[in-house]
Amino acid sequence: MKILAPSILSADFLCLGEQVSTVVKAGAQWIHCDIMDGAFVPNLTFGPAIVQAVNRCTDVPLDVHLMIKNPDLIIPEFIKAGADYITVHAEEVVHLHRTVSLIRDLGAKPGVAINPATPLCMVEEILPFIDLVLIMSVNPGFGGQKFITSSLDKIRRLDTLRQKKGYNFLIEVDGGVNENTITQLSDAGCDVFVAGSAVFQGNVTDSVQVLKEKLRNT
Ligand code: DX5
Ligand code: ZN
To answer: pLDDT tens digits for 193-205?
Structure first.
């Protein structure tokens, strides 16, 4: 099952509820929430209050991507707000097994993200304990950036490792996902596709349907 997870980072915040309903109606299966603190990444976005508001307007899974320092402190608030998946960055969390256990003990599904220059070996030991690996295909912080093509080979290697070990985590990709990159990402083994600018710039319904059609044909 290939999952499209529009990132509300690129949505029109003046009509966020309407935009969320539109993408879900058009066929998006998850909503991706990019949380940034201006410290781990050079941008500042939103917190649990917005996740809670989104949770009020849809029943689809909320996929919360924490690009923040010291995520343990605020993870409980995001889960209370309705987060279904909580993804933390391996580059930031020193005690990753403890944080992953915290997310699961509080009732959400844990994910781990790695930036483009971070090797897969950084997450090898945590793979048996998580439900999602997020491969960043841009340097995190902003929407609308150029896709980093080396992410494709990284995804292929992760999928090979997953099959070899019989792991059942999902592979998610985030950054520069659009109609020109989504097919090769799917062929490389990706399951979940985060798209911000490709969905919310232009006609939202048409954009979702173009990406969904591409996924149906892979
Ligand atoms: C990190 C964010 C972005 C966003 C996707 O910067 O996680 O990657 O979700 O943005 P687009 O789809 O516009 O590259
Ligand atoms: Zn993200």
So the answer is: 999 999 999 999 9
